[in-house]
Specification:
Number of helices: 10
Strand content: 15-25%
Radius of gyration: 23 Å
Order of helices and strands: EHEHEEHHHEHEHEEHEHEEH
Largest sheet: 9 strands, mixed
Strand order of the largest sheet: 7-6-5-4-3-2-1-8-9
CATH architecture of the largest domain: Alpha-Beta Barrel
Number of domains: 2
Shape: elongated
Helix content: 25-40%
CATH superfamily of the largest domain: Metal-dependent hydrolases
Distance between the termini: 36 Å
CATH topology of the largest domain: TIM Barrel
Length: 315
């Protein structure tokens, strides 16, 4: 799998909330892993996080990763339920695609009380609660990140009402201390957060809209999620650091539309070849440089060919 595109960060479609038959409430338990991968690729999804309820089906995730190959990056994850003031709040833990998945699941399962015996003792899947602080702490120790439902999405952090000052404080503390990404339920939630909530609180978290799909035969999203980053967990970390410049929700990012509508105005790359008549003792640059359509600068060490590249482009 290519971990870094030679041309730099590009726009890809992501879905970071996706279920499989390992979830207790999945619609069609007979669906195969190949059908899941084929459908996601057909829908244009480049990165997916497997976020089943209270479990990480290690063997299934590993097979999905193998089937996805270099066309679909599969991130391991898990969806958990917390209890904040009597309100069930759902949050998701996502881990690197290269993590030692068996070890991650053993740790998560043991420390958060998610063994089959634990779940049965708590009354079954629909009654399992894992405190957000505990889930976030374990996730970050294992190198993962945490997303939480927000806005008008079901089981959202916004179900902690703002009628009293201390409730506002709870929401702020939860988001600032334990959460990396807010998963909203509707496009209008984005405007509310960007223009009202974030300016008032000083928070600056990425806002994602995902499928929460429980039936691959009926895969749909309110709006596609696009991230401008390598299709890897490392790329996701870059988005978290630069949330306003690397996230777009809608049919196509404007950058892609502009290039598609003006294909003759953008170079995909340039190649250098040493002429056979060149003096053998001279040093010549050769090879191919791939360009990003958002190219604004040429960066490199002294003597790496920046000037030669710039001169070629303007000549």
């Amino acid at each position: 799998m290519t971990l870094h595109a030679p041309s730099g960060s590009l726009w890809h479609r992501w879905d970071l909330h996706f279920h499989t038959p390992a979830s207790f409430d999945y619609q069609c338990k007979s669906v195969t892993n190949a059908q899941i991968v084929d459908k996601l690729i057909a829908e244009g999804v480049r990165v997916v996080a497997i976020t089943d309820h209270h479990t990480m089906d290690v063997r299934r995730i590993q097979e999905l990763q193998k089937l996805g190959g270099d066309k679909l990056t599969v991130l391991p994850g898990i969806e958990l339920r917390s209890d904040q003031g009597g309100k069930p709040i759902h949050y998701i833990c996502i881990f690197p695609e290269s993590c030692k998945l068996d070890d991650v699941w053993v740790t998560v399962c043991g420390r958060l009380g998610l063994t089959p015996t634990d779940i049965a003792a708590k009354g079954g899947d629909e009654k399992v609660y894992v405190p957000l602080e505990d889930g976030a702490t374990v996730t970050r120790e294992l190198g993962g990140i945490v997303t939480i439902h927000a806005g008008e999405k079901s089981n959202s952090i916004d179900e902690i009402k703002n009628r009293e000052q201390f409730q506002q404080r709870i929401k702020f503390d939860i988001t600032s201390r334990f959460v990396d990404v807010l998963e909203v339920g509707q496009i209008k939630d984005i405007d509310v957060h960007l223009h009202t909530i974030f300016p008032r609180t000083g928070l600056n978290k990425p806002l994602f809209l995902c499928s929460d799909n429980h039936d691959i035969a009926n895969y749909a999203v309110r709006a596609p999620l696009w991230l401008r980053a390598d299709p890897t967990f490392r790329g996701l970390l870059m988005v978290i650091r630069e949330p306003r410049d690397r996230v777009f929700m809608g049919p196509r990012p404007p950058d892609l539309v502009r290039v598609e509508q003006n294909p003759t105005k953008y170079l995909s790359g340039i190649s250098f070849n040493r002429e056979s008549t060149a003096p053998a003792a001279d040093v010549w640059f050769s090879g191919t440089v791939q360009f990003n359509p958002g190219l604004v600068a040429i960066v490199g060490n002294k003597g790496s060919g920046k000037s030669a590249l710039a001169d070629t482009l303007v000549s």
